[in-house]
Protein 1
Amino acid sequence: MTLDSREVTPEAPAAAMGATTAEPLLWTKDVTVDYSGKRALKGTSLSFEAGTVTALIGPSGCGKSTYLRSINLMNREIEGCVIGGEVHYHGIEVNNAETDTYALRKQIGMVFQQPNPFRKSIYENVAFAPRCHGMTRRSELDELVRKSLSAAAIWDEVKDKLGKSALALSGGQQQRLCIARTLAMEPDVVLMDEPCSALDPIATFAIEETIRDMAERGICVVIVTHNMEQAGRVADRTAFFLLGDMIECGPTAELFERPKDKRLEDYLTGRFG
Amino acid sequence: MTSTQRARLSDHVATGILTAIVAAILVALVAIILYILISGAGKAFDISFLTGRPQQFKEGGGIGPELFNSFYLLVLTLLISLPISLGGAIFLTQYAPPGPVTSIAKTAIETLSSLPSIVVGLFGMLTFVLSMGWGFSIISGALALTMFNVPILVRVIQQALEAVPRDQRDAALALGLSRWEATVHILVPRAMPAIITGVILSAGRVFGEAAALIYTAGQSAPVLDFTNFDLTSASCPWNVFRPAETLAVHIWKINSEGVVPDLAAVSTGTAAVLMICVLAFNIIARLLGRAMERKVTAE
């Protein structure tokens, strides 16, 4: 399966995927981002299937995080930032003024580069957002907290100290708590912005296992990483960004072994970036 | 002399000078505080002074009404100014679009926070006492103090909210919370220890304020009857339309036009009471801030 996602057309995104005939869960067409009139991301078109992991790689400042933060419209929270193009999610174009961004972000979760647990107890970190969204029964919340922490592979470490501060956890544990917090919303897409860059190798390995787990349970994971080994370990597909431009996208192994674009080849062989 | 020696010497000299400056300030401050406390202690811990009525001509007057008035005005002022300041600070940090209007508002707040309190007092007299026709009254005083307190509180709360790391807000928004929910459930609780500390410290300033009150709350203290709940009666303590002299105004008044024979003793006693209260506010602010910090971090 070879594809250049930039050829994906809105009429036949699935055909371009060469796999199923159904429309992908999430796809973008010509997404651009401007900061105060300055273009940070050129028209990017990619599609993402449920149950797969897609890595976005490239040197710093290449636009991969900017693209990621456009999918759940988080860029809109930055003053002077404008997202252009189309983001299709469950067959609906969401990059417009009518979209309920709050409802959208309940279903498209996000994990950040620095672990950012709330200054609350471990239990509250997970239960807080579902409660805000209307889940108030204690037994339901208890079960959700247990399930989410288990899914993020941190339950056994924290089950005896759920009332303790989340800030007392190690960096890796905090990041897994942040993943659990995201999973508690039962999202079908999880966006991860270099989730392991602040972590040691053991914690990184644990997170990578969780990422594969999430994909197996049908979640569509999009992960930004500057670590190509990590992309190789977790991602089914990889997209390469450079200078605000999506250069090449394809199955990870193929992309790494037979890069079509000279710039990607230079990047892979360490000639820049 | 080598450059290392020179660096070490200049370090020693700088440390010495800075220590001397701090010591000089400390000595002056401690001397003032001790002087007031020692000369006023006799009265300040005398129950009949704390609860008694002030005298016009003979000795032995107390400061009961003034003490009550000071606290009542403070509570009213905080009740009015806290919601306004909290709303204003949340708007400025979370909602206000950057632009000329926002920057004018911010500049105005900064200017207002350094407005001389006598100007606030005269403004209050023209607006609340005369134009609104409320006369010298608690409500006029409380509103003048609000004018004086809001800019300070807005800045304190604004700084507390801005000190919350941005990633906390991002995390809340990424979980599908609205800006309002993120503010109310994440930002404000996180900033609460700093907000509480700021509010209590500003309360100390309000408590000791005299100039803004002389022309608004007035310089007379009607005899208060705590069994009187007729809100229109001048002797009802809770009546907000009665004049109310506070501790700070009382000090100013007896020193400028007092004729009681024990003037100096009443004055220092009042000053000591005032200072003990402000000192207590500061200590409470610190303890409460620390306790809140422990509570919100769930440790």
Note: Residues 46-296 of chain B form a domain with the MetI-like fold fold (CATH 1.10.3720.10).
Protein 2
Amino acid sequence: MNETGQRPVEPIVGEPDSELDSAGRITTLALASLMAFAVIGYFVGLADGVPQPSGIDSEPLLKGTHHPAKADSKVVAAVTYSEISNVPMGPSVAWQAIPKSLPKSAHEVQPYDLFAEIKPSESDKEKSNFVRASRRAFNGAPPVIPHTVENTNDAACYSCHSNGMRMEGLKASVMSHGFLANCLQCHAPPPPKPFEKIDSSVRSRFVGLQAPKAGERAFPGAPPTIPHSQWMRENCHACHGGPNGWAGMESSHPWRTNCTQCHAPSATLDQAIPAQGLSMLPPIENSTRE
Amino acid sequence: MMDVQRRALLKVAAMAAAGSAVSLGNPFPNLPVLGADDLPETDKLSWKKAPCRFCGTGCHVQVGVENGRVVAIAGDKAADVNKGLLCVKGYHVGGILYGEDRLTHPLLKRDGRYVQIGWDEAIEIVAQRIFKSPATFAFYGSGQWTIPEGYAAQKFMKGGLGSNHIDPNARLCMASAVTGFLATYGVDEPAGCYADLDECNVLIAWGNNPAEMHPVLFSRFTDRRARGENVRLIDIGTRRTRTTDAANDYLEMKPHGDVAIALGIMHLLIENGNYDKDFVQKHCAFRGAEATTPTLQGEAISESEFRKRIAKYTPELVEELSGVPADQIRMLGDLFGNRNLRITSLWCMGMNQHTMGTAVNSLVHGVHLLSGHFGRPGDAPTSLTGQPSACGTVREVGTLVHALPGGLLVVKPEHRAKSEELWNLPSGRINPTPGYHTLQMFEKFCTPTNEGGDIDTLFVQVTNPGQSLPNLSKLIDGKVGLEDKFLIVSEIYPTATTQLADLILPAALWVEKNGMYGNSERRTQQWFKMVDPPGEARDDCWMTIAIAHRLFELGHDGMKDKDGNFLFAVKDDAGNEVPIWEYEHYYDINVDKHLFEEYRKFSVIKHKNLAPYDEYVNARGLRWPVVEQPDGSWRETMFRFAEFDDPFVEKGKGFDFYHSTSGDGRAQIWFHDYAPPPEVPDEEFPMWLCTGRVLEHWHTGTMTRRLSPLNRAMPTAYVEMNPDDAKAANVRQGEVVVIESRRGSTELAVWINGRGRPPRGTVFVPFFDETKLINHCTLEAHDPFSKQPDYKKCAVRVRKLSKVTQ
């Protein structure tokens, strides 16, 4: 893939062998083209963009006479009302098997231990920094969404990003701020599916603020200051701790929860003290009209 | 210290690194990646306040500046509008300064090619053309003009040239809101403010998609749900949008259905007797259009006459006209009939870009007045604007063909006299006849001179009519080949408009200059210049003053006041004139402050009082009227016309509409009959076309199309189609089709059920994409009062590329 995210076209036919005579070459080319056409034709046929029945509504869901489902089938067996209290409900066995069949993540193999000794690695930190920077126009910008978004419902985002999760090499970051509605207001999604291939690159000389590498220490061993703003990053553990934080940025003491007790934030970065007093308004409850 | 060169190198290295990241499986490498090896330089970073450059919400941002460049943006926590939050455009607003193709030199078209010229020559060319024929010169401005820029242009045209041919692009976006306010209250701009969003129980979006267009305001409301509050969102629209996703009720209407719905609610309030009789009796009057020549004034009608007229708009008839089921109209009627609720209405282009724009704006105000859902926090009819200073620069400064600053009108002799007095002009300088409004201006410009096209020099500042006008084939393309017509465009990037320009002037942008904006809730905001503009780019305000001064030198009498002084003369504290027309001296003094202090005198005439400039320096904007208190402080006003907050309402009165058109302190509840849209789908053109915006791009995309995170999210315009329509037309997802109307056509990729989900028979196209101009298809039919065209409905057909037209 090139910089714009498009796959370079693979040549279907390689360089013709110089030892082949021209007739043989033509035959090879003709055959290859034929095969290529056939293959392309097949896939074009398959990928016809006209909305097609997806298969699920092309045939009735319930066929023939009703018969009780087997215990291991995908269907939860219907029971009478009187039996409900004795029947285990919830995800069917087949459904439960789906996540189980996925390869286990590191934390599932070895559960997260809050009190394990942590030695943040510099190379991990560099890697994490790199990935984080690749999703932001500047440090402090809301990261863009690195995966496709089909559902614009906030609950869909929240289901993975509230506490974060890891699955098969993928990591859903923990939200560093409290719940805010309308996630896509700030986090730009990737291009819509039908326009994925369109070159969206821009020519810009904008150079964004870099992520700070570390806070300042008054003396060796002193707790470092917080080098970035805390605004929208109120949840320190989103990045610096827990099983779903960023590798290399972990706190060595994740069990401590009152971070700013020791690590001083920056009043400037946090816009903590307005430069000038702000004009005040009377409370709006003064309405006399009911 | 990190210099610019090193940063550029870093970026190159980063891009290379990003490229290599692809092979590691990161499929989204478009953002510039910053080297992780460098230590933070946060100590050199300084943060300053500015309003966001984009929409009319008026969020404040904190701009991070390092080594003379904008490097970061943060939401301003001290800002009352956005309370520290921004939208995806706002977070990336800093990047708009740095597109590689910024215009940096004046460019003159010579023999079909552009050649770089100096500013002196550029100003000379413009001044000479105006000097030769001031009456055929027109100025086309913008709701993105800063207040001082608009004020300078206004004074230059109306006070200097004695010409009223000055109109802004806001004509295309909020003119109907203005006429709606004028018809109802006799004075422009909303009575409520954004605090209504914090207080209302019910929010009604009338043909409005705030989830994408005003996201910060939208989530200010929807975040209340997350806090456990019980609030109800009702979405009345012609297609499903992200706003619908969050709505409790979705009322799908036919185009123009909003008129019928408002009439239906009023009918039910009268029918059920649950309107606010006390409020209506004390503070309202009824009004209808004149039978012969309707005006914005209308004529008074009695309550019984109003009852008689509204009687036919039963829920059943409204269902027929609007497509919204009668029981849902009754639901709305019951909501408005319940005085215990607080109801806020929001609207923007849906009701404004409407051939009945004035009517539907007045009717929705009427629904709120009749039901008494007015004047309590949370009870408000609130019109939103799309541009950062459509209110501040266009509506308040009055940069429209008929207006003077502070809500004054050119047709009124006493208003002209007052303006001449404040501008120190000889009496009779201001022309009493309104000039050419936007559509006329471009029509006259694109018509050959010998066929009555009596505008031959057009100066466009801060806007892109080559993309945003309706019916482009007629209103812009007509210019091509007319040798005596001269188009001057002040721009930051090449656009669809600069393509046609004879002279291109490179402009300074946003925090490259001082500025002031006025947002949708009457909030006036100020910022200071933070970085230098690139190359030879200069302030729009300076351009106007420099042209004016050149005319002054040439001996144009209009550029002199009564005493023979230059119209824009600025003196320093020692009383010496500062030559602000020379760019080297433009920032010797704060020109914005001088212009604003002069303009401020107009604001008190119609109770739109503004505070001194320095008050805005310290605030995150102040909502007018801002009135001085006995202790010398300045107090802003959140709720107008209501005694509890508006200082101009006499104590004990409760309410006072002190600019009432009936002269008795009453607001007008209008009746307008429903009329069908000017063009409806037929056999030949069977689909409705609606145009609009998407969250990531702002208006014609000049700025947002140069921001990586935004353009990545929405790299192209598209045509949104209903799956059944796509199936019927045999078109596939992503297939390029031709959208054509009676006026023109454009090619677009199909997005079945795209960002929004249109009902059958409707397509939607965003207008941001300069390579796919949907405005070749749109209609220039417009509202009779506001002259605002209807971009939201016309008839088109979708044709497969392979199919030849008959």
Note: The CA atoms of residues 92 and 135 of chain A lie 38 Å apart.
Protein 3
Amino acid sequence: MLDIKNLHVAVGGKDILKGLNLKVDAGQVHAIMGPNGSGKSTLSYVLAGRAGYEITQGSISYNGEDLAALPPEERAAKGVFLAMQYPVEIPGVTTMMFLKSALNAQRRSRGESEMDAIGILKTVRKKAAALNVSEDMLKRALNVGFSGGEKKRLEILQMALFEPRLAILDETDSGLDIDALRLVAEGVNGLRAPERAMLVITHYQRLLDYIVPDRIHVLANGRIVAEGGKELALELEAKGYEQIVRDAA
Amino acid sequence: MSSAALETKETVAGLGEKYKYGFITDIEMERAPKGLNEDTVRYISAKKGEPDWMLEWRLAAFRRWLSMKEPSWARVHYPAIDYQNAYYYAAPKNTPLKQSLDEVDPKLLETYKKLGIPLHEQMALAGVAVDAVFDSVSVATTFKEKLNEAGVIFCPISEAIRDYPDLVKKYLGSVVPVTDNFFATLNSAVFSDGTFVYVPKGVRCPMELSTYFRINASETGQFERTIIVADEGSYVSYLEGCTAPKRDENQLHAAVVELVALDNAEIKYSTVQNWYPGDENGLGGIYNFVTKRGDCRGVRSKISWTQVETGSAITWKYPSCILRGDESVGEFYSIAIANNYQQADTGTKMIHLGKNTRSRIISKGISAGKAQNTYRGLVSVYGKAENARNFTQCDSLLIGGECGAHTVPYIESRNPSARIEHEATTSKIAEDQLFYCLQRGIGQEEAVALIVNGFCKEVLQQLPMEFAVEAQKLVGISLEGSVG
């Protein structure tokens, strides 16, 4: 589904990713782990198509298509979803209104008919209940005054609503206490499906106790330096990034 | 249809939604000779079949105007207006005094249709009575009967001068005096139409009243005069929408609106102003110099202004409230959008004269392109206004790096018990907000519209339902092409 080859990315003229290779198949959950500044967030942004992240070399193939050639909103319509580390506040726009606008924009882009307000409301309510997203949150302005846990739960709700093919979770565990973490992880696990691939980006091993990946990649200095099964996370926890990076070199 | 008009229509069609009201209706017009002198004033008065007292009132205003200077304190720049090189009266030929819509020129009705005004039976469903002002003459007034039953007078001001001279004499110029300012005085001399509303004691007006203004003839100024009087214990909500065709020359619009609320009465006045703003290079567009003022004359009276200003090359407008009656309330809710080369200098004045008077100002200014947007407001508390309270919130949103937002609040308090709060913010549409929307599949234009509508929400909520939807769309259309 996702095939990244020799990817080089510069931000503000500075090289961040320096020859990254990564392949993720449908139905799999891969984790990207790495120390601060290794390029984890850059990878998530470049996949989502954020402005200012310049691909200087290499390619990203998504279901056989050149992902880099698509504007970000088309990537979204084609099933690329990024759960953000810092979800953004939009004052005055209710969460429900935002979800409706986004869902219908994606549907329009795919040539599907728009869903009416009542249909969307029903769908959202059903999915919200499972993630402990309250009715009140849906009525409030998007992310405004939300706690860290509420923001992350809303990201997962959007993931459940949009049913993406490729879901990227960027440090979804940051700022969560253990109960919130468990809830978010349950939400993510509930969305594991044969047709869906997930890329879980995290700094800590902790999240992977709850979301067990098929494969772990260690990102350091803009490259994948180590790969392995879920046991690699425990090794990382024991040895620390420095040791692993040194071993790989 | 003349070839020029046809060409304009095609050009507009090519522009798509950019300014969809930019068509011209090809109807033979009757005009006063170009220029402005006492004869012009007499011509207009005669055309309207006005009584002598009205002509005298106009002439006095005209003589006064000759001695006045155009104000220059606003943060707007434009070449000098040549008042002698414009027409002051234009009316569709052979249209006055129609008995029913069937007699109205079909082209005129076609124009209304394009504007989206439901003039026929749809009106009953919409529950809106429209006094449509086409250039200077009202051609169709609907729903009169239903309003008559309630005792509400809703008619063109020329008709009111003829049929209700005592009411007009009592209120005309009583809120905005003839001598008030350059543009108001000019309007007093040459106003050619407008609307008159009187809601009798204790009556809640059974429907939203609405007037659609449209400037059609070229080089014609539109000077409408509107008076709304809410007698004791009454309520009325009035909606005003404005559009004008696309033209390369600038056109002057200098209206005067006077509101009077007596004891326990309430007036809600909503405007969606979408006059032609000029093109992307700042060519053409309406000069909108408007004086709007409400007088809360009675105790516990309330006047509420809501405006969505997206059009005009220049907007110079300060809908104000004189809080004369004890415990009276004044409100001003404003959205002002300036894109490309538009200049907006708008705000309000809240004059607290009575005890326990309250005012609330919510202003949302949005600047994009190379536009300049100024909020200018005065809160003044007089010595006898015990316990006056004001809350002001001025928020500015900038889109792109070449526009400007300015906030100029004046506060005067001569009573120590006054409580005046002022909050102001300036923000930009953040790149991360846009990216978040894009990532969720919402395209750039829609994302900007969504974020700006969110920014304006408190004001949009004040609009009557049927206007709110139009206004939301307008916010999006006005800002098309402003990002990226």
Note: Chain B touches chain A at residues 430-433, 435-444, 446, 450-451, 453-458 (CB under 8 Å).
Protein 4
Amino acid sequence: MKYAALLTSNADDIVAWEKMSPEETAAIRAEEVPKWEALFGELRQTGVLGAGFELDSPKTAKTVRVRGGETLVTDGPFAETKEQIGGLLELDAEDLDAAIAIAARIPVALRASVELRPVIEH
Amino acid sequence: MQYLALIYGEEGRWAALSQEEREREMGEYMALSQADVTKGGNELDSTATATTVRVRGDETLVTDGPFAELKESIGGYYIFECDSIEDACTWAAKIPAARHGAIEVRPVHVEEGEQS
């Protein structure tokens, strides 16, 4: 089964992150990156991990609507939710339980959440 | 630069469309899927099939449904390769759901020193 995993961060954590100096964010990244790489390395070997995308902060988002033929572009994400999407991973897991087991190992699951959605295969 | 276009729409809407309207929209989605700027994307199953996973302490908490309940929910996404976010927004405006829902365009993060 193919799944899209939507990786979220807490809105409060994003605000705190944006207030940090480049040195502080680099230090946190240096600590986190090996955890991600260990998980990704393992998942790639087993063919479970497809494409993955880390996103820039939600404040860099633009939201596009077309109404009456006119394109309206607003700054910011579609919704100001408590948890905000920060990345997306494509997974090819045996079943939902296997996908849940992977999601639980993604570092953001400890702070915010991972939403798993089955992909419709055309 | 790559951009993720998250497609938000009302889930009940598709069922209310006529066969002709569905075929027209499906044609638009297929054309976008095949466009040169499109580097990926997927249609997602309904939010009724969503599972949200959180880990607190040593416990894995699994809940049915999306991480946030919204009137318009994510139904799919595209990855666009564009020179600027403005170009990505121009492509996002071609997605049928832009006419009734909304498309959130997000730059894909590139670490400094990495090639895009």
Note: The domain at 2-107 of chain B is CATH 3.30.70.1060 (Alpha-Beta Plaits).
